[in-house]
Amino acid sequence: MPSSWATPKPVCRVSFFIAITRSQTISLAYLGSTRSWTPLKVVGDGSFGTVWLCDWHGTLPPKTPLSPMQCGAGARPEWAGKRLVAVKRMKKRWDGGWEECSRLKELESLRAISSHPNIIPLYDSFLLPSTKELYFVFESMEGNLYQLIKSRKGRPLAGGLVLSIYSQVVNGLHHIHESGYFHRDMKPENLLVTTTGLADYIPTSPMATSGAPPDKDVVVIIKLADFGLARETRSSPPYTEYVSTRWYRAPEVLLRSRDYSNPVDMWALGTILAELINLKPLFPGAGEIDQVARICEVLGDPNHDYGRDSRDRQIGGGQWLRGVELARNVGCTFPKVCYDIIIILSRL
Fold first, then answer.
1. Which residue, 4, 33, 207, 227, is the most exposed by fewest CB within 10 angstroms?
2. Average of pLDDT values for 150-161?
3. 185: annotated active-site residue
């Protein structure tokens, strides 16, 4: 943590008035409203922006609740009396002014997707005229799912906790899709987490005996974040080839398809669930070709050679003509997987 945050003091004061015209364009003028905040610590630093946990001294939208970090048994005493928010500063200079900012995909999607308990809310956004820097003000959260998984150090999550996390992610993702958008960058780092205490979860393992004691584990709130790559479902392809972190990328994206939609989010959701259970990535490919090979090792290559099981279900990956064509276009050949391995995996 930079030494400049060691003794925080208010350093950012901006007076703006935000006027929304009939065409929903936003202009900034130096009038009465004051924004001021105290940076507490850096919580994220990426290629496009830096995020601070801050104590907010200005106004927020009416009925804005306290951060989950300040509620419940998990609230830390040092947060008492503060108004915690996450302030994100974009690194790009926006010389085109607010009109240019308003076309930013992240801002468009955050405005279009209505409030939901499992989606991080945007409280405010503004452009600093002196530096042409764009700022977002979000609800603050404790960390992310990647950090939670790493903190377990190999200790499995209680089955009930996995179900809780999964259901919250599904609810948030369903709301995004119902709003006409898909996320395109689903990964543990973009699922924000706040722990609010401990709970007893009913054992869900099939090996658990009758009357087994409950599994004690943390209670978490999950919220989907980082909509920088989100797109409208009805928008016209082609889309960017390189989206999402490789390990969570759907096969069609790995094969350089530029015509895809919300199923890529569902693929990522499945890989995240597997990681929650195993505490390690499901397909940790070293490159795109290796990623495809690892997927085939688990799911089989896309053909009909493996037949069907006793329930008449396709064994292995099944035929995928579009995938074969995509692979051919990029010079990739699906690796053949041992028939016996596929049969064994299909029975698990």
1. 207
2. 95
3. yes
